[in-house]
Amino acid sequence: EMQLVESGGGLIQPGGSLRLSCAASGFTFTRYGMNWVRQSPGKGLEWVSYISTSSTTINYTDSVKGRFTVSRDNANNSLYLQMNSLRDEDTAIYYCARDFCATTSCRFDQWGQGTVVTVSS
Amino acid sequence: EIVLTQSPATLSLSPGERATLSCRASQSINNYLTWYQQKPGQAPRLLIYDVFNRATDIPARFSGSGSGTDFTLTINSLEPEDSAVYYCQQRFNWPRTFGLGTKLEIK
Predict the structure, then answer these.
(1) Chain B residue nearest residue A45, CA to CA
(2) Do the Cβ atoms of A44 and B100 come within 8 Å?
């Protein structure tokens, strides 16, 4: 069974750092790009970051550029999001999502259950 | 950044009725439009990709249409379990953006 399990969330003060992890299982992790998507309390979805299979292509939404770093460990089927200089507005559920691509078609076909990050003093 | 505008914000319909959800892009996104369904307390679920392709295990009463900047998700013969928030998303360029969602309530 394909599974994505996020961890690493918690309560952190503004300006602090957290490292989120996403453990993948049940599929060949090295074949898929991966994304982080977040959802602020009571709000909609916001794409945060993408990393390609071999980490050669990385993208971020503007609001996290210079503060967040996405990475992956293909040997351990894991995706990471290093979050520094955290702000109140980073408070959200953070989901990892698999980027399924076939020929020219791509979509986020599998999602984890999310990990909650709360930035507050 | 491409802005996706979803309408209506909220829709309240009865079982058996048809729901029509709209997603308008601020510029042409070709056919790179995806729909997701999210129920309370759950992660989003892929419904429709590239405008009209249903994802695995999605019932045929869910359908997508549109092109360029205007897209529609239609749900025929509504069932109680269709109560959810529906988001559209574009993958035409970076950043990948989502609409703010349409909340569908089944009376």
Answers:
(1) B98
(2) yes
Q: What is the DSSP letter of B96?
A: P
Please list the ranges in chain B whose pLDDT falls under 70.
none
- Strands (E) in B1-107, as ranges, are 4-7, 10-13, 19-25, 33-38, 45-49, 53-54, 62-67, 70-75, 84-90, 97-98, 102-106
Residue A25 confidence (pLDDT) above 90: yes
What integer pLDDT is reported at residue A37 of this predicted model? 98
- The answer to whether the CB atoms of A35 and B96 lie below 8 A apart is yes
Q: Name residue B82's amino acid.
A: D
Instruction: Give me the residue from B44, B96, B100 closest to A111, CB to CB.
Output: B44
- Which of B1, B55, B99 is nearest residue A109 as measured by Cβ atoms? B55
pLDDT in tens, B69-86: 999 999 999 999 999 999
Q: Which residue has the tokens 């040997």?
A: A75
pLDDT of res. A46: 98
Distance CA B1, CA A69 (A): 21
Q: Are B101 and B16 in contact (CB under 8 A)?
A: no
- Give the separation between CA A59 and CA A35, rounded to whole angstroms: 9
User: For A56, how many CA atoms within 13 A lie in the half-sphere containing its CB?
Assistant: 4
Q: What pLDDT, in 10s, does the model give residues A62-106?
A: 999 999 999 999 999 999 999 999 999 999 999 999 999 988 889
pLDDT value of position B5: 98
Minimal CA–CA distance to A25: which of A116, A112, A100, A101? A112
